[in-house]
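Have a think about this chain, tokens included, and walk me through the fold.
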Amino acid sequence: MARTTRWFIEPHGGYTNDAVFQLIENEGEKFHAEVNQHRDTRKHPHNLIEVPGYRHVRAAIQSQTSQQLEFNVFVWLKTHGTIQHWTPPPRK
């Protein structure tokens, strides 16, 4: 069955790029991650790394300050068919 939600990270710089690949590898995922270009709802191109699931997005967000990672998160919903910028909800 096809997934209805796909998660992507857009790294800003080589350090963040490497950190995202390391994050996926550290999870022991059998997932072929690579950088691919996708267009958002406004047709703007983005170089994105698809991650296996939301837990990887959450782990990157949790590491963002301590590892000085700079990135944006995008989500693809089957209902929309295009990627959209995603902002995490504010921490409580």
Q: What stands out?
A: The radius of gyration is 13 Å. The longest strand covers residues 5-11.
